[in-house]
Amino acid sequence: MTKDPEISHASKQEISEESIPSAADPDTDERDSYKNKMLRSMRRNILATSFYQLLVALIVIILPYIIIVALELDLFVPIFTIANFRILVSIGAIIIAFVILEIVYAIFIFRAFDTKKGRIIGYIVSIAMMLFPPVGTFFGILFLQFILHPENDAGRFSAGELTKKQFQQALGKNMSVTGLLMIHQPILILILGFWLLSMPLDMAHPIITSELYGSWDLFVYVFAAFFIVQILFGAFYAKSGDNKAMKAVAVVFAVFNISSMCLALSSFLVYLAPGLLDGMDIEIAVSTINALLVVGGIILGIIMNPLGLYFGFMIIKSLIAEEKISREM
Amino acid sequence: MNDPENIFRFNKRISLAALITAIVVVGGLGGLLTYKATKPTVSTIYYHYNLQYRCGDGTSYEDISFAVINIVWMYGNHTNWNYSIECQFMLLEYINDNHADWFADIKEQNERGQLELITPQYSDGWHVPYPLKDFYESVNYTQHRMAELGLTASNLIVLQEGQWLPGFTQLRDMGNFDAFVLHIEQATYWKYYPDKPILKWDFGGYESHALVNPRAPVFEANTWHHQIYAADGELLNTGDVEVHGGPASEFAFNPEKQKNHEDKLIALEKKGNRFMTMGQFYDFAVQNEKNIGTLDKFLPECEWVAAQYNQYFTWMGNGKSHSDDGSLIARYYNTRNIIQATELLINQAYEKGYISEQNYSDWGPYKIGTSEGLLLEAKKHIWESQVSDTTGISPSYWEFWYGLNNSQDAVDLCYDVIDNVRNELTGNPYEPKIQVNPYTKDITNNSAEFYNNTLVDASISLSDIESKFGFDVEVSQSAAFNSYGFTEEYGKYYYNTTDWDVEYYKMKYGFYGAYNYTFDLYELNYLTENELKTYNTTGDPSTRNDISVKFTDDWTQATYSPALAENETVTLTRDDYWYEPYGIGEEWYCLLSLCNGLLYNPQEGYAIVKNCSSCHMAANWRNTNVEFFETEQKYNSTREFFIVEGSLSDILQFANQINSYALFQWEAI
Known about the structure:
The complex is a heterodimer of chains A (329) and B (669).
Chain A: H1 12-18, H2 28-70, H3 82-107, H4 109-113, H5 116-130, H6 135-148, H7 164-182, H8 184-198, H9 210-237, H10 244-280, H11 286-304, H12 306-328
Chain B: H1 4-37, E1 41-49, H2 58-76, E2 83-87, H3 89-98, H4 100-111, E3 115-118, H5 132-148, E4 156-157, E5 179-183, H6 184-189, E6 198-203, E7 206-213, E8 218-220, E9 223-232, H7 233-237, H8 255-270, E10 274-276, H9 278-286, E11 292-294, H10 325-351, H11 357-363, E12 367-368, E13 371-372, H12 374-385, H13 397-424, E14 434-437, E15 442-444, E16 452-457, H14 462-469, E17 472-476, E18 487-497, E19 500-511, H15 529-533, E20 545-552, E21 557-560, E22 570-573, E23 591-592, E24 598-601, E25 606-610, E26 619-621, E27 625-633, E28 637-645, H16 648-660, E29 664-666
Parallel strand pairs in B: 1-2, 1-9, 1-10, 2-3, 4-5, 5-7, 6-11
Antiparallel strand pairs in B: 6-7, 8-9, 12-13, 14-15, 14-29, 16-18, 17-20, 18-19, 19-28, 20-27, 21-22, 21-24, 23-26, 24-25, 25-28, 26-27
């Protein structure tokens, strides 16, 4: 197995003094490969977090400008007050500084990770990520784990030693815990829905009506039910053995994790379309605009749901790997 | 990294990270949800309906009344939804006079406590520029009329344009009012963030409560409280345009809009929302001392959403559309002064037996039985003219004339009363030349006791005044009017009576407007818009005059009398309020309306006293200057300032004597 080219960027001095694997270790090549792959994965995670942090920064800076400066409204949205305006802009600037640090770190992660200073900066980056739940917190903890234990369980198991049972237990636990985390989505939708209902919005405009709030509640119930069942399903998954139906259900959960927000946002946008078009006085075929809104909802749903995406694909990958273990056995 | 071992390892890492994140996120959100579940959801709502939205347009009166009754009928179908309507008494009077069956429905809901009527005043008057009397009497009259019609008035005061008036405590025990509503954005405009729903407010020796009206949902008074609606009711269920933040183009009832609104309320009901009137929420919250804080900062007068309207510059400086704010308000001010002097005359004549009880009833300031005296009629006219819509957001030509005509009617009625009284009994003491002084409440025909205003030095120049008081004056107008110039007049005066005197310096400026036309304070001749064009000054009627008189000095502190509290003063520090809150150069106005004209400079010990009957615009107060500024002036106008040195109490008396309690001298009949 050849080394990943990125590792060769590190100087010989750095490798000899600070790299964790030793050249004498027979598993070096394999672990380096694992580490490099993990680093690549972490780079993606850091960049993804940066993207969301950038959105937060823009919200923290631009929303006050729109609400307070342009619309000259104060306290229509709590936090975004005149008194907080400069603080919000400062916080936005700090977040942008985090984002820049993270992006630079992600670019040079292969060089940085193998130096002591680089790992210290890594700690700072992971903490900066953790401050932005849920996406940043999750990826930040993942990164922190990696900095603390770059090799993790390497060496404890070889492919032959890893039993299917162990694998299924880990996968089941993973599904349960991620299901638990994903419960934040229906709670957030519930809170947001009620908050919007309590806001003095759309008093006479037909865009948001009780019908929409009703369907909003439906999403809350469906999402909550799905993720609760996922938690329970994960707990029993290790006992499934080779049951194909269980695997099919796991795939359903994976797909739901990936697509939940796409469904919600597409439906929401399609519902809003007639009112929006009425308000904007635009002449366009309803089917066309609906198609556009569905696509828009899917794109937005993917952007708004990075954890679901991550967990969903991880479940699918795990199921494929489980299948591989079954074949090898 | 697709081999099973790596995925196995990675799953373990993910599980740990997801578990910690779940504890943080789900725990946090779940905690919030649980906390919310322990607090009952309570809503309040008030529909602000304004019969005078298009004052003078009778069709709109009918449409607006129909909009009101449709809301009432909607609530008739949901008897557990309590709600508040805030409106002027004129609206209820109009409905009672024209639609007895509608009025009966309103009365029924009001009687059973479902409908709260926040109806403190007769007309939707704007009180920022005035002393107490007009507001006090309008409220007093309204409360009596409400009782007469069998209606229960709210214990809260909410006014047209959501006016915040810190001087409201001066109402004292009149009416059954417990609190004045302070909209949250009004507090924040003044850099103040209240943390309790009710605030004790002590001003001018009297304490009352301010009820803070939230705009966004908030945990308060052990509830999740949200204000469903607190804006123009007309925007909610009239008009063919879906409006967010702007006036409806017309007021025809729109059932679709109202249905949407009803749907939203139904959605709230399904969530277990409890509908309270504003008064019910106050009564509920005030029971617990923990809900009561103290308003420990003076918040000057302002409109609701003050930032959007530059505090109230739209009403007292911005001349957009058809009205000239300063001149029109000065006209109202002069008229209310005439009413005040007339009232003193007729009251004294009656007390001293110069007029009969019947005459007093016919001409006087009261409603006795079904008969309203002429002076009460005059007062109703001035209350009507003081409606905010004649100087506020884009008044139309007929709204401008609604104000002019009503104030002229009031003047005419006053002079009828004055003539009646002075001619009633031969040999009465009011036949000779008299001075009527509402400040001292004296009427005298003894010239030795007259107040005298004597020009003692006509040679005074502006630079003389500047060097004496140490300020710089900058007078400017739009460039298009520079070739026409403006008139200037300066002088030193001596104002005295037998036991009191003041020396002051007068500065008087006369400006051209887009039309070279001056409205007389006592005589009014209607002009059509076409006739008006013949008076065009520059050749282009759209060229209007922006006029500024600026006094530059150290103004880090300033003293003034708040609206409704002309006998009180408050000294403020400019840095306690926003100036450029965003740090990007946009100025937030701090306008001082000067209800008695007084603006005292405590650093330098002098005062600028504006003549409120000449041009009554607000002073924009900055650390380094005060500016009397008006835009888009259409008619010729005059600005008068009296500069006085001395103690604050002496100058306050001077300001009140010449403005709030102006003295009138009438020649012998």
